[in-house]
Amino acid sequence: MTYKRKKYHHGDTHLKKRWRLRNRKKDLDEIDSDLKEENAEKLLNQNVDLDLPGAAQHYCLHCARYFIDEQALSEHFKTKVHKRRLKALELEPYSIEESERAAGHGSFKFASKRKIVTQNNNTDVIDKDGDVVLDDSTASKKKKIDEDDT
After folding, report:
1. Cβ of 53: how many Cβ atoms within 10 Å?
2. pLDDT tens for each residue of 43-99
3. To the nearest whole number, what is the mean pLDDT of the chain?
4. What's the first-to-final CA gap in the chain, in angstroms?
């Protein structure tokens, strides 16, 4: 004798929507405007805000996320999430001109790819002697740059 499967739950779409909206990040076209030179400089050098993780000092431009310290940010650069976001940002965002070309107004051209590189970690500071100082406060962590070895 077979038993009928009981269906007491009518779906969890209301729960899915709540989780989807909570984890939502910036759209790719919003991030594209953040990658411009003047906006990127503002986002990377923000004022201290104690309400944000890491006091808003460690920010990933491509993923629009704040991190608690420099180590967490550098670990994030190695993750699949960050690499997928870089891959998605390679295509130029959809524009009004592109939509008009697709509708027949003008000649069609394929979306061009661009080179997106992970942002620099600003932990290395070079002093006037050409030494790389890993931390501003400690002078014992200096490395001499040997240009003769190459």
Report:
1. 15
2. 999 999 999 999 999 999 999 999 999 999 999 999 998 999 999 899 888 888 888
3. 76
4. 80
Identity of the residue numbered 80: K
Tokens representing 34?
A: 């953040």
CA atoms within 13 A on the CB side of 107: 1
21-25: list long-range contacts, CB under 8 Å, 24+ apart.
25/63, 25/64, 25/65
Report pLDDT for 68: 94
In SS3 terms, the chain reads as CCCCCCCCCCCCHHHHHHHHHHCCCCCHHHHHHHCCHHHHHHHHCCCCCCCCHHHHCCEECCCCEECCCHHHHHHHCCCHHHHHHHHHHCECCCCHHHHHHHHCCCCCCCCCECCCCCCCCCCCEECCCCCEECCCCCCCCEECCCCCCC
pLDDT digits (tens, 9 = 90+) for 109-141: 777 788 888 888 754 444 445 454 444 433 333
Q: Tell me if the pTM is above 0.90.
A: no
Written as one letter, the residue type at 16 is K
